[in-house]
Amino acid sequence: MSLEKIRKGNAIFTNKFKETKKLYNYLVENGQHPKVLWVGCSDSRVIPEFTVNADAGDLFVIRNIANIIPPKDADETCTSSVLEYAVLHLNVEHIVICGHTGCGGINALIDGTLEDSKIHDWLKYANPAKETAKSSGRDSLELETIKENIFLQAKNLMTFDYIEEKHRKNEIKIHKWLYNMHSGKISFYNDFDNDWLPLN
Ligand SMILES: [Zn+2]
Q1: pTM: predicted TM-score of the whole model, two decimal places
Q2: What own/partner pairs with CB < 8 Å and gap ≥ 24 does 85-89 have?
Q3: 3-class state of residue 121 by DSSP
Q4: Architecture of the domain delimited by 32-198
Q5: Per-residue model confidence as pLDDT tens digits over 41-81
Q6: How remote is the CA of residue 103 from the centroid of ligand 1, in Å?
Q7: Which of 38, 115, 153, 181 is 20–30 Å from 172 (CA)?
Q8: How far, in Å, from the CA of 80 to the mean position of ligand 1?
């Protein structure tokens, strides 16, 4: 997308903005009250709001390479500050960890990246998923690692006391979702059936 396309894009958006001014005005005057924190990948092909047809104000979003949540003791403040704000201040009711097929971050993890790189440093938070996937052998190593990474990051959420407590009290729900880039469809992991099922 060229800068020229971006400039024209804002003109198009401004027209749409006028059409939905009521919603935008409401959000300005009443503040944001999203019920969902979405943890997704930075991949430009996987846009959370598009995939679930969300409006402004619906999703509080954090995106990074391979939809990772470093555990609490990682002393990492980007994702943890988003968690804190979403859970303790916005009081979201749901946290969605949404991975996706064909994830470049996960492929970099499998193939190995240069050790002296920030990407390498970041992907170490997904490394246990690769190790688990190696011994699983159900799907391809890529798909299995993508799925295991979703489980791992959902588990990492629980290292934050306030999330663990709210989850235990059923005040917050954790969702493990997988977006298929070939179909646009989302699957969710059903803990009772231990299986991935279509979201709709
Ligand atoms: Zn990705």
Answers
A1: 0.95
A2: 85/60, 86/34, 86/37, 86/60, 87/37, 87/160, 87/162, 87/163, 87/166, 87/172, 88/162
A3: helix
A4: 3-Layer(aba) Sandwich (3.40)
A5: 999 999 999 999 999 999 999 999 999 999 999 989 999 99
A6: 4
A7: 181
A8: 20
